[in-house]
Structure formats: structure tokens, C-alpha cells
Specification:
The complex is a heterotetramer. Helix content of chain B is 72%, strand content 3%. In chain B, helix 16 packs parallel to helix 19. The two termini of chain B are 32 Å apart. By secondary structure, chain B is mainly α. Chain B is globular. Chain B has a two-stranded antiparallel sheet with strand order 1-2. Chain D is mainly alpha-helical. Classes of the chains: A mainly alpha, B mainly alpha, C mainly alpha, D mainly alpha.
Chain lengths: 577, 524, 101, 250
């Protein structure tokens, strides 16, 4: 802490006193991934401006992928650097370069990599051209990285805005669906409102402490006994409200279901992973490291927010009929779990929250990758009914989705289980036993709808649910289903067991999804009177297939061999500055 | 206590073998024909379960008689940051439950006819076997929780996918009840580890370490309730049983066998392994409550079973009564009661599995479980009737069959300390004889009408499946010594542990309680 | 002596409250958006006031960044409004509320 | 106490503050209550101007200039441009409640906020933090602009650089959003959501906003939240009530 303080102080004093402007030293390694993302976006835009035709998806994806890969490599180099030489504060105290920030950077860059793969398939399918979507994703991810590395409240704010403003545009990206624009509008209004609240919070904290630099705030608080300082408490409350908007915690969650539903599915996946990671990264750093001394003041608030978030997210998700809405509420529930780690306000809590974010990001991305495929052309097919007997039509796709859903439900041997266990451990350790109990109850409720969806996917078409309209239609479709059972059943059977299966299976599987879809829907036209329309044969392009395989791999492999990832998150908090 | 053996990891293999089989079954290539797939998958299932059985027998053979501690332990760091280790071990209490699991799964897998989707069924069942074995062998509480939880998913899908009647409702009910219970148990587990951490500075979920945690009585009671919530739901103990008749009735035969014979034992096993080891004082303090619940379960199960027309539900309620017996055996907290409880767990597993198989076959022939519609099956199906008679008599507790040995020991252990509970429980025995005999009479006696007269007798395959169970029923009934020899030392250790922790003898000792290792017990 | 900072802060709080209230009660997107600008201005006023009270230039620098953010937000926000609005004209649909909740 | 302070404060400063504060508040209230978006925008200019005066009063001359140039000059003009471009310059009926329960909710929130403030005021101490952490604001060679410039290029160098990303997003975003959508937008392509009220014919039904209740059974949703349509009307639709067309309600 003290080096940070000294450095900043020294810099500012010398700059002002000298009269001449001595620019601060910039250690480019500390901000390399951010620069790569921004640079990648600029290069893409420049390239598209120079060529005559609109840039096709393959070109822009290769640019974006290279940028994400480069950023990932750079962040791994950063990790090596931090492990070897310890944390530090860089670029005039604006950036923290520690295990925490590098963890977030690695997570964000790898999640962006996956999101770009998903978006590629979407762009190709929808026939959207141009580099804008992926460029915006890169810049937006850069915002999330900045939030993780921010060492100053104004950096948190700027990161937040970069992240959010790009997401507003991304949410509105699908011109053809009215829902997209409306989602963006709603997201924008509430986002701008929450940013204003957040800025006011910064202002009050600034007034109370005299600085916005996080270590300096902590330093000030440790040297001055501030009991019940109205400015500080008010500022803290407003900061918390601003953060809660971003991470979609109750009661500031209202935008989530609509925006998740309305935004293009790859964007929803990106948003659910990156925005949450960024928001929580900043929230954890600001509250635990800077305002840790005031934890007695904010812990009760987090307790209440976490409890509400857990319960509301899980219970409202139960009644959703739209998969994207359901996943939106489930993401609210997950936010509650991450808040458990924050509420603990311990180093362990922070590392467990980080681990949870890592696990969640890939499960969410994987889920939305599947949803994106099932959404089919037009990206509108997101009713729960669309998933009925998906296992018969596309066994590997359904198997992957099963992995993600079971992971989110917290079934053992997935990262989801260990993540839930970890945050519960942190909460109990911090004597929040009741909160841990509430969390587990909400996990049970949540498991219920995850399993319901899993069962729907593996259920026989229109077998034990009254969806088909007329009895005659139902009979006909059952008959047709039995007729087509021979091939369909064979393909479906295998994947049912693969929640425990190896990740190796997923890799081949997601690629194999497309041939399986070909002859699957023979029995569907029978029940034409009902609202059950003919299910389209889905195609799983390579890009999204790889993305799903990656996510499933992370979820299962690190669920079975958890030590590396757990240690990684643990190290990240040990190396906090 | 722990014997580290740097040799072949028997127990790990035992757990992983079915899991590998499950993966293999799931990965059977799709290019082959449906019939070939069915055969291949069933072969995989059978071979895997038989290999597991062979390994379990080998473990039993290697088991050192007279040693009450954990044997053949294997311990590896798994998720060190979270305090979880891969710690497996077997002792006299878990040994026969493991063996039981290994014996019953091949039977369960092949016992019921699974028409559709054999691949998934086999895969889920093998996964379930891995989960059950893992639960019985875990010496790390979180590892136990993981396997305990992992059993829920296969059962959910087995009931929902291959069940009868209102199967999705039953599956959901089962899942919600048991998952809710286990969720609270997880919190209690973590709380225990945190307390242990605050005392020793070591964050671990290792059962052996946690057993040395000093807990205040109020903490013990709270944690005990947290753990017991899960076990009581799983067992099921009387007021928490409401999911079980539905789930048993809805489950396919194989699933019902697994559910009633093995998974129910997870609950009672958990009580013995965790409640008694970790919270001895709370166990002693709360024993009257649990005894009451156990007795209530016996009486309630018997009474409700009396009015059932549906054979499967009748068996489900009778199972509730038997579980009540096991519970009072455990909470008698004497060597006899506890050893009887463990033995009764094994016995009940064998008996209930046999019953579910038999009535499953009756259903396959007649398409009903309603005793009103069954009549005079004895004449067309004599072997079926004979098997049913033996099994039923074992369930009633006829001397010479295995049911008697366990129940007798339990009553013996309970009677001294808790006389009135034992007396009421005995009434349960009488009642259970009543309804089982009545059901038998309804279904098998009398003159068969036209439909019932067509009933096939057991095929040789079915005979082959039921035969080992009947052999076991008789064998344990007449010669329980080898089993008790292995159970008793561990039970002695456990009772001594409880006594030490409570400072006073938990229950008056009788006669030959302090059987030295290796010394055999004579049956009265 | 100048007016005490507390007065400025009081003004800033009231301005912030009026802006927040406006966002909550109005339903015209543009007006809501203007109310957000009011809130940002309240924050800026607070920053400048604190900057004076603390004799610290940092507060003024922060205002600078808030201004940049506000400008970027306005561009994107109005862009979204325009984009949606134009589609309405194209589609001549007057009443979809696709998103509810 | 206030008399004491008033005595100490110079009349000019007090007068300036009072007048600007009045302007600021009047403008703010005007933004919230004015029915006409153009009026609201003009009121916003008034507030911005008042704030700029207060900046000058507090020795933040550069920011005051930026406030007038960027805010009043650019941002509000952009607002006005959009208002005119969209033709959404009709009145919004302030009396009609946007959503059942929204205003009471807002009222409750405001009351709660005030209560919190009162509690905070009664319970809390008020003190400001450390002085001149990022550099003194007054008495520097070159005055306010130089001091600000130093701060921005030293302490706040990285935040300053990072704003570049914001501007990139703004530009790209504007391009993306301004792109003409392809001419296929039948709303029926949208898969109906749970209420299925989208399946209503997309055209030929005038006066949309008055019928909004009929599409939503019970006005609420299964998930327990109030219905929140985001509706944007067309300027050409003949609305009897003269409702403003671009509306959002939560």
C-alpha cells in the first residue's frame, strides 16, 4: 500500500512544484492487454475503412480473435511478472498491477475470446457484415479489464462507462428485432441513471476523504477515525447502488430480464459474463480493499441485498417461459452468490468470489452459445418449448447445455459446485451462517428449474406435457415420434449420461451436432394445430461449436481437477497490493 | 487408527469403476443397430457391475477382522484451497453396505425390463452406483456430500425417464426434499470445518480430524440437526418420509431397488458415520427424540401399510417401518443396537431389493400392483410364490432368516435402555407380519381367475437374479457370525467414542458387549 | 469570505434529487435523459465545491472526465433513440411492447 | 448561526450564489415538469448556465467554459436536434400516470431518501477529507487552467488517455446505430413472448397507447413484476391525447 501512496504523492508534488510538466512513467506491460484490445478494435475499424467492400465476418473475426489471443498471452505474461516481482501500482497510481487485476484480465480476455467465437456464428447466420460488433466487444471488454485494474474511483467510473456504453450499442445491434432496440433503450436509461448515481457517490467519497485514489482512501481511513461520517456513508451507499445496477443485484435488477431477452444472444452471453466480471471486480476491490475498515457499515447492507438477490433470482426464474429470461434471472441468482464472498469481506471471500466469477462466466457463455444456436435464424426462438426433446434432435448440443445447466445448479464435479461451496465457506467463516443457509435454499430452488430444463431437453416430444393442442394432433405426433424413434433414440441416448462424461466428448460432439439435426424433425408436422411449429433443423457452426466445447471443458475439467483454478484464484488474492 | 497402505488403491478403483462404465455406456457408438446397442450397453453394465462386485468381494476378503479402524484408506489432496481431500476408507460399518451395493446393482440393472433408451438407463444406474459407493467410502465430509448429492441426479432422471404413473411429480418431489435437506447439511458441514479451523488453524473437511473438534453443546445440537435433516429425509425417518412412497411407487424396478435398498441406507449410514462420530453429546441428548421418531415411523408405516391396496406402496410403507427399526437401533447407542442397526441395514437392503424385484416381475406379467386384481398366483407361478414367501418371511423377521437377526439385536440393545420404545416397536413387528401375510394371502392364495391363471412363472434369468438374494437371506439368517465379526469392532470403537465424549456410559451395557476384536458373538 | 461550501453542497443535493425524481416520474425518453444530465451536473457541482473546500485540483479534473463521459453517453443514447424511432416509421407499428417486465 | 455566516459572507458572493442557485433550481424543476421536450431542453440550458456561474464563483473558470461550450453548446444542441429530427415535439400529458404505481413508488423512494438523509444528518458527523492530495487548486502560476492541465497530464494521465476509448465507442456506436436497417422488419417475425400480445397485427391499429391495458391480462406478469412496456410511437399516428411519442416506462 505505502509504495502506491508514496509514488502518487511524489508524482503529484513534483509535477506541481516544478512548474515544468514531468510526465509520469508508464509501464506498458501493466496496461498491455487493454492496449491490445483498444488497438485491435482500431485496427479492425481502420481495415474496414480501407477496403472497398464491407468487411466480412471471417476477416473481422480473425482480427478480433488475434487481439483476444494476444491479450490473453499478454495477461499470462503479466501473471508471470506479478508472481515474480510482486504487485505494484503503475501509470501515476491509476492502475493497480496485482494478482487480482491480472486474474480479471485473464478471465476477461479468455471470455472475450469465447464470446467472439459465438458472435462470429451469429454474424454469419444473420448475414450481418462489418467489424463493428466485434470491435465494440473488444473495447467493452477493455472497460471490464480497466475496472479490474482500476486503482482510482475515476478509473472505475471510466471503465464502467466504456463497458456500458459499448454494451448499449451492442444491445441495440440487431436492427431487425424491435426487442433489440427497446432493450438497448431500457438498458441505456437505467444505466445512465445508475452511472449518475455512481458519480455522485464518487463525489461524496471524494469530499469525505479528499481523494479518489483507492489506496489513498484506505490510507486516509486508517489514519483518521471516521465514525458515522455522513458524506462517506452517503457516498458508499450511492457507490453500492451504482454497482448493484451493473451486477444486477436486487433491487436494482429490473433491467436484466428485458435486456437479456432483447439483446442479440451473443451479446447477451458477452454481457452476462463480462459485465458481471467487471462490475464485481471493481466492487470487490473498492469495498474490500479501500473501504474494508468500514465493513461494519456496509456488510449489513450487502447481507440484505445478497439475500434478496438470491431468493428473487431463483424464485422468479421458476415461472419464466423464455430461456433467455430464465437465464437472466438465474444470472441474478448467481450475482447473489458472488455477493456472499463480498459480504464475507475477507481475503478468502474475495478469492472465492473470483473463482465463482470464473466458473460462472464460462457456464453463462456456454449456455448462451447454445441458446444462440437454438434461437435459429432471426434469433427469436427462445421459448422453453423450443428445447423440448432437443436431446433427440441434437444430442451433443443438448449434452453441452446439460453440462452448463447442471453446473449452474451446483451439481458436483462441475466448477459450479465448487464455486458455490467456496462462497458458502467464505460466508460461514465470516459468521453469516444464515445467509449461507438462504443461499443454499435458493440453490435448491434454482436447481429445480435447471433440472426442469434438462429434463425437457431429454423428454420425449410432447409426451408428458399438455402442449400439443388437439388430442388428435397429440396422438399423431406421438405416432410419428415412435415411427422416427429408431434413429432419433439412438442419437439421443448417449449424451444423457455425459454430465459426468469427459470433456473430450464435448469437443467432437458439438461439431457433430449439425449432421444429427438433419433427419430429426419428421414427426413434427403432425401437431400443426398447436402452437408447436415445426422445429428448424439447427446448425452448429464451427465457431460456436468450439466455444461451447471450450466452456464445457472449463466447467467439467476444472470441476474434476479443481486445484489449479482454485489455487489460481487464491494466488490472485494473495498478490493483491 | 488409519492404516496407510501404499499399494493398489482398491477403494478408489471401486468408486471409479462404475463411473468409467457409465462413460463407456454413454459413448457406445451410434453407428450400430439398436439391438446391438442394447446388448452392448447391457453387457457393459453387467460387466462393470460384476467387476465392481468382484472388487468389493476382494475388499471384503482383505478386510482385517477385528480391526475397528478405517482400512485400505487412500488419501490425496483434491481441492486443497477448499479443504477437500479425496479420502476413502472402509470399516466394519461401511464394509457390508459397500458389498450390498455391489451385489444389488447387477441385480437392479438387469432386474427390470427397460424398453426404451437402455443406454441412458445403464449410464445413469452405473453413475448412481459410483455415487453410492463413494458415499459409503468417503472419509471427507464434503466428499461424502459430493457423492451424496451426485446420487440425486441419476435417481431424478431414472424416475422421471423410466418411471410409472405420475413420475415427473414424484421425481421432482424426491429431488426437492432430498436436495433441500442436503443443502442445509452443506452449511452445517462448512460451519463445522470453520469451527475446527478456528481451533486448530487447519481448514479441512477430513472426518478423522473433525472428530476432534471441541464443540459447545448448543453448537453440537445445531450442527446435529443440520446433518440429521439431510439424513432423515434421505432415510426417510418418519415425518420426513412423504416423498418416499411416491418416489418408490413411481420408480422403475431397477430404480426402486437402488432407491429403497441402497440410497435409503445413505441416510442411516450418514447418521452413524457422521452424527455419532462428530456430535456424540448432541446424539445422546437428542436420542429420545430420534427414538420417538423411529418408533412413530414403525407404527405409522405399519398402520398405513395395512390399508394399502397397491403392493408397491405397501412395500414402501413397510420400508418406512424397517427404517424406523434401524433408527432406534442406532440411537439405542449400545453395541448391540448399533451392530443390529448396521446388520439390519444390510438385511433390509437385500429383502427390499428382492421384494421390489418380485413385485416388479408381477407387474410385468399382470400390469398391476393392486392386490385386489391379483389372486391365486401360487398355482400358475409356484417359484415366484415360493420366493415371495421366503422374502416376506424374512421381512417379517422369522427366526432363521436374516431379518430376524438384525431386529433381534436392535430390540435387545434398545430394551435395556429404552424399554417402552422397544415395547412399542415390537408391536410394529406384529403389525408388519399382519399386513405382509394379508397381502401375500390376497395375491397368491385363492383360486386364480382367468387372467391370473395365465401368469408366467419366473424365467431362468429371473431365477438367477433372485437366487443369490435368497441365498444371502438364508445365509445371514443362520450364520451371521462372519458379518457380525467384522461389524462389531468398529461399532465398539464408535460406542466407546460416544461414551468418551459424553463422559458417562451412554447406555447400560449388557453381557458380552465388550467383545474383544476377533472374539465372536454367540447368537442367543 | 465566500459562500460556505455547505450551501453549494445543499444546492447540489437538491439538484440531484430533482434529477432523480425526474427520471423516475417522467416517461419521455429525452426528458428522462435530460434529468440524468441534471444529476451529472449535481455531481459536477459537488466535485467543484469539494475541490474548493479541500483546495485540491483533483475534483476539477474529475469534472472534466464526467463531462467527457456525459458527451459519449449522449451520443450513444440519442443514437439509440433515433435508431428505434426510425424503425417505427419504417414498420408503421405503433404499439409493440415486446419487452415486458 | 446563519446570521453569523451571512454577516461574514460578502454581499456580492452571496447574491451571486443566491441568483445562480435560483436559476439552477428553477431550470431543474422546469426540466422535470415541462410538458414540451423543447421547453425541457431550454430549461436544461438554464440550469447548465447557472451551474457554470457557480463554477466561476468557485474559481473553476476552465470548467465553467467547458460547461457552456460542451454542455450547453454541444449536448443540448444535440438534444434539440434529435427532438426536431424526430418530430417528437408534442406535449406529454403530465397528469397521466405512466404506469400504475410508478409515481407512488417514486414518492416512496423520495421519502425514503429524505428519511435516510435526515437520519444521516442527525446521526452522522460531517467532515471533509485530506487537503490538496492531487495538488493545490489555488495560487498556482498560470491559474486554474494550468493547474488543471497539470493534474490531467500527470495524476490523471491514464484516465485521460482512456477517455479515448469512450470516444471511439461513441463514434462507432453512432455509426452502428445510424445504419439503415434492412427493409425487413415485420414484427410478426418475432416469436411471441409469454403474453403473446405481440402477435397482434402490426399495422392498422391507430392510437396505440390507449389500448395498452387490453393486451396485458391483469396488468402484471407471472414473474411478479409490473408490466413495463417500452413503447415508441410514430409521429404520424393520430393520437387524440397528444401524447409524446417517444416514451419509456419502467
Amino acid at each position: 500500500m505505502s509504495p502506491a501512496h508514496l509514488l502518487t504523492a511524489a508524482l503529484s508534488v513534483s509535477a506541481v512544484r516544478g512548474g515544468t510538466l514531468s510526465l509520469p512513467h508508464i509501464d506498458y506491460l501493466t496496461i498491455l492487454p487493454e492496449l491490445i484490445f483498444l488497438g485491435g478494435a482500431l485496427v479492425m475499424l481502420l481495415h474496414s475503412a480501407l477496403i472497398r467492400r464491407t468487411m466480412d465476418a471471417a476477416t473481422s473475426t480473425s482480427w478480433a480473435l488475434s487481439a483476444a489471443t494476444a491479450a490473453l498471452v499478454a495477461s499470462l505474461v503479466q501473471w508471470y511478472e506479478v508472481s515474480a516481482h510482486g504487485p505494484k501500482v503503475a501509470v501515476a497510481g491509476a492502475v493497480a498491477f496485482d494478482g487480482f487485476s491480472v486474474f480479471v484480465t485473464i478471465l476477461v480476455s479468455s471470455a472475450t475470446l469465447v464470446a467472439i467465437l459465438i458472435s462470429h456464428s451469429w454474424l454469419e447466420r444473420e448475414g450481418v457484415r462489418g467489424p463493428e460488433m466485434q470491435a465494440l466487444m473488444l473495447v467493452s471488454a477493455m472497460g471490464a479489464m480497466l475496472m479490474g485494474a482500476a486503482n482510482d474511483l475515476i478509473m472505475v467510473f471510466l471503465g464502467l462507462e466504456i463497458l456500458s456504453i459499448a454494451l448499449y450499442v451492442l444491445a441495440a445491434f440487431d436492427h431487425r428485432r424491435p426487442a433489440s432496440g427497446e432493450a438497448a433503450l431500457k438498458y441505456f436509461i437505467l444505466g445512465a441513471f445508475s452511472s449518475a448515481v455512481f458519480v455522485y457517490g464518487i463525489a461524496l467519497v471524494y469530499g469525505a476523504t479528499g481523494t479518489t485514489n483507492l489506496p489513498q482512501i484506505a490510507d486516509f481511513l486508517s489514519r483518521n477515525l471516521l465514525l458515522h461520517n455522513g458524506l462517506l456513508l452517503g457516498g458508499l451507499a450511492l457507490l453500492l447502488a451504482g454497482f448493484c445496477f451493473k451486477i444486477a443485484a436486487v433491487p436494482f435488477h429490473m433491467w436484466t430480464p428485458d435486456v437479456y431477452q432483447g439483446a442479440p444472444t451473443p451479446v447477451t452471453g458477452f454481457m452476462s459474463a463480462i459485465a458481471k466480471v467487471g462490475g464485481f471486480a471493481a466492487l470487490l476491490r473498492v469495498f474490500v480493499s479501500s473501504f474494508g475498515l468500514l465493513r461494519a457499515d456496509w456488510q449489513p447492507a450487502i447481507w440484505v441485498i445478497a439475500a434478496l438477490t438470491l431468493l428473487l433470482g431463483a424464485s422468479v426464474a421458476l415461472v419464466q417461459r423464455d430461456v433467455k429470461r430464465m437465464l437472466a434471472y438465474s444470472s441474478i441468482n448467481h450475482a447473489g452468490f458472488v455477493l456472499l464472498g463480498l459480504q464475507a469481506a475477507t481475503s478468502r471471500g474475495v478469492s472465492d468470489s473470483l473463482y465463482y466469477l470464473f466458473a460462472y462466466a464460462f457456464m453463462a457463455l456456454g449456455s448462451f452459445a447454445v441458446v444462440s444456436i437454438v434461437g435459429a435464424k432471426g434469433d427469436g426462438n427462445h421459448r422453453l418449448d423450443a428445447y423440448r426433446s432437443l436431446g433427440r434432435r441434437h444430442p451433443w448440443l443438448a449434452a453441452a447445455f446439460t453440462v452448463f445447466l447442471l453446473g449452474q445448479a451446483g451439481i458436483p464435479f462441475t466448477t459450479g459446485f465448487l464455486a458455490k461451496l467456496a462462497v458458502v465457506e467464505a460466508a460461514v467463516e465470516a459468521h453469516s451462517v444464515w445467509l449461507a443457509g438462504i443461499a443454499m435454499v435458493s440453490a435448491v430452488v434454482a436447481a429445480f428449474f435447471y433440472l426442469g430444463l434438462v429434463r425437457l431437453m431429454w423428454a420425449a416430444p410432447a409426451a408428458d406435457a399438455p402442449v400439443a393442442g388437439a388430442p388428435a394432433g397429440a396422438m399423431a405426433s406421438v405416432g410419428a415420434a415412435t415411427a422416427s424413434m429408431q434413429p432419433a433414440e439412438r442419437v439421443s441416448a448417449g449424451a444423457l449420461a455425459s454430465p459426468v462424461g469427459t470433456a473430450a466428448g464435448q469437443v467432437s460432439g458439438s461439431a457433430a451436432g449439425s449432421p444429427a439435426g438433419a433427419g430429426s424433425t419428421s414427426g413434427e408436422e403432425a401437431g400443426s394445430t398447436s402452437e408447436e411449429t415445426e422445429e428448424p433443423a439447427l446448425s452448429t457452426p464451427l465457431g460456436v461449436g468450439i466455444a461451447i466445447a471450450l466452456c464445457a471443458g472449463v466447467t467439467v475439467v476444472f470441476g474434476v481437477i479443481p486445484a489449479p483454478l482454485l489455487d489460481f484464484a487464491h494466488q490472485a488474492t494473495l498478490l493483491i497490493r | 487408527m488409519i492404516h496407510h497402505e501404499p499399494e493398489f488403491p482398491f477403494l478408489t478403483t471401486l468408486v471409479l469403476l462404475p463411473a468409467v462404465g457409465a462413460v463407456l455406456a454413454a459413448l457406445v457408438p451410434r453407428s450400430i443397430s439398436k439391438e446391438a446397442e442394447r446388448r452392448l450397453v447391457q453387457a457393459i453394465g453387467l460387466v462393470t457391475t460384476l467387476l465392481t462386485l468382484a472388487l468389493a468381494i476382494w475388499v471384503t476378503v482383505r478386510f482385517r477382522v477385528g480391526d475397528g479402524g478405517y482400512q485400505m484408506t487412500s488419501r490425496h489432496s483434491w481441492a486443497a484451497t477448499l479443504g477437500i481431500s479425496w479420502h476413502l476408507g472402509v470399516d466394519g460399518i461401511s464394509l457390508f453396505l459397500v458389498l450390498l451395493t455391489a451385489v444389488l446393482f447387477p441385480v437392479a440393472l438387469t432386474g427390470g425390463a427397460v424398453k426404451q433408451n437402455p443406454r441412458s438407463f445403464v449410464a445413469w444406474m452405473l453413475l448412481l452406483e459410483a455415487g453410492c459407493l463413494g458415499s459409503f467410502l468417503s472419509l471427507d465430509v464434503i466428499l461424502f456430500f459430493i457423492f451424496f448429492d451426485l446420487t440425486l441426479v441419476p435417481v431424478y432422471f431414472v424416475i422421471a425417464g423410466w418411471g410409472f404413473g405420475n413420475r415427473s411429480h414424484a421425481a421432482t418431489k424426491f429431488f426437492l426434499y432430498t436436495f433441500l435437506g442436503s443443502a442445509l447439511m452443506l452449511v452445517a458441514m462448512v460451519a463445522l470445518a470453520v469451527i475446527h479451523d478456528s481451533q486448530t488453524g487447519v481448514f479441512t473437511f477430513d472426518l478423522v480430524s473433525l472428530a476432534h473438534t471441541h464443540l459447545s453443546l448448543s453448537d453440537q445440537v445445531l450442527l446435529f440437526l443440520g446433518f440429521t435433516a439431510a439424513f432423515a429425509v434421505k432415510a426417510p425417518v418418519f415425518p420426513f418420509h412423504t416423498w418416499s412412497p411416491d418416489a418408490y411407487a413411481a420408480a422403475p424396478t431397477g430404480g426402486a431397488v437402488a432407491l429403497a435398498a441402497i440410497m435409503a441406507k445413505l441416510g442411516t449410514y450418514g447418521i452413524i458415520r457422521f452424527d455419532l462420530t462428530l456430535f456424540p453429546r448432541a446424539t445422546v441428548d437428542l436420542a429420545p427424540l430420534l427414538l420417538t421418531l423411529g418408533v412413530a415411523g414403525i407404527v405409522y408405516g405399519a398402520v398405513v401399510a395395512c390399508v394399502q391396496r397397491d403392493l408397491k406402496r405397501l412395500v414402501a410403507y413397510s420400508s418406512l417401518g424397517h427404517l424406523g427399526f434401524i433408527v432406534i437401533g442406532i440411537f439405542a447407542l449400545s453395541t448391540d443396537g448399533l451392530a443390529g442397526g448396521v446388520l439390519a441395514m444390510v438385511n433390509h437392503g437385500i429383502i427390499i431389493a428382492a421384494i421390489f424385484l418380485l413385485i416388479g416381475w408381477i407387474y410385468e406379467r399382470r400390469g398391476t400392483w393392486n392386490v385386489k386384481e391379483l389372486k391365486g398366483l401360487q398355482r400358475p407361478a409356484p417359484i415366484l410364490a415360493a420366493s415371495f414367501t421366503v422374502v416376506m418371511l424374512a421381512a417379517i423377521g422369522l427366526p432363521g432368516l436374516n431379518g430376524f437377526v438384525g431386529e433381534f439385536l436392535i430390540l435387545l440393545g434398545t430394551f435395556v435402555a429404552h424399554r417402552w420404545w422397544a415395547v412399542v416397536a415390537t408391536a410394529g413387528v406384529v403389525l408388519s407380519a399382519l399386513y405382509l401375510l394379508w397381502a401375500y394371502q390376497q395375491a397368491f392364495h385363492g383360486v386364480a381367475d382367468e387372467v391370473n391363471a395365465q401368469t408366467r412363472d419366473l424365467s431362468w434369468r429371473e431365477g438367477l437374479l433372485i437366487a443369490p438374494l435368497i441365498v444371502l437371506i438364508v445365509l445371514i439368517g443362520v450364520y451371521p457370525k462372519p458379518v457380525l465379526d467384522r461389524i462389531t469392532p468398529s461399532v465398539n470403537d464408535l460406542v466407546a467414542h460416544v461414551d468418551r465424549a459424553t463422559g458417562a456410559p451412554a447406555a447400560p451395557k449388557i453381557g458380552y458387549r465388550a467383545a474383544a476384536p476377533g472374539r465372536t458373538r454367540r447368537l442367543p | 469570505m465566500t459562500v460556505p461550501g455547505a450551501w453549494y453542497l445543499g444546492l447540489s443535493v437538491v439538484l440531484f434529487a430533482i434529477g432523480a425524481l425526474g427520471v423516475l416520474v417522467r416517461r419521455n425518453v429525452l426528458v428522462m435523459f435530460m434529468c440524468v444530465e441534471l444529476m451529472l451536473n449535481a455531481a459536477n457541482l459537488a466535485f467543484v465545491t469539494f475541490s474548493r473546500m479541500l483546495d485540491d485540483i483533483g475534483g476539477q479534473a474529475l469534472v472534466f472526465f464526467v463531462l467527457v463521459v456525459a458527451a459519449a453517453e449522449v451520443v450513444v443514447g440519442l443514437g439509440i433513440v433515433v435508431a428505434i424511432f426510425r424503425r417505427r416509421q419504417d414498420a408503421t407499428a405503433d404499439d409493440f411492447h415486446v419487452l415486458k417486465g | 448561526m446563519s446570521a453569523h455566516i451571512l454577516a461574514a459572507v460578502s454581499t456580492v458572493d452571496a447574491l451571486t450564489f443566491a441568483v445562480s442557485a435560483l436559476i439552477v433550481l428553477a431550470g431543474a424543476v422546469g426540466v422535470v415538469v415541462s410538458r414540451h421536450p423543447v421547453h425541457a431542453a431550454l430549461m436544461l440550458v438554464m440550469t447548465l448556465f447557472g451551474v457554470a456561474v457557480l463554477f466561476v464563483e468557485q474559481r473553476a473558470e476552465f470548467l465553467a467554459a467547458v460547461q457552456v461550450i460542451v454542455y450547453a453548446g454541444a449536448i443540448v444542441v444535440l438534444f434539440l436536434f434529435v427532438i426536431m429530427f424526430l418530430g417528437v415535439d408534442r406535449r406529454e400529458s403530465v397528469a397521466a400516470e405512466p404506469l400504475r404505481g410508478q409515481r407512488p413508488l417514486a414518492l416512496v423512494l423520495v421519502v425514503l431518501g429524505f428519511a435516510g438523509l435526515v437520519v444521516l444528518g442527525a446521526e452522522a458527523h460531517w467532515s471533509v477529507g485530506a487537503h490538496s492530495v492531487a495538488g493545490v487548486a489555488r495560487g498556482q502560476a498560470g491559474g486554474n487552467v494550468a493547474a488543471l492541465g497539470r493534474a490531467v497530464f500527470t495524476t490523471y494521465l491514464f484516465p485521460f488517455e482512456v477517455t479515448a476509448a469512450l470516444l471511439v465507442i461513441a463514434v462507432v456506436g453512432a455509426v452502428v446505430l445510424a445504419r439503415r436497417p434492412p427493409r425487413i422488419a415485420p414484427p410478426t417475425e418475432e416469436v411471441p413472448f409469454e403474453g403473446a400480445d405481440v402477435a397482434r397485427p402490426a399495422s392498422g391499429e391507430p392510437g396505440g397507447s390507449e389500448r395498452r391495458a387490453d393486451g396485458e391480462p391483469g396488468g402484471g406478469r407471472a414473474d411478479g413484476e409490473p408490466a413495463e412496456p417500452v413503447r415508441v410511437g410514430s409521429p404520424s399516428d393520430p393520437r387524440p391525447g397528444g401524447e409524446t411519442s417517444v416514451e419509456v416506462s419502467r
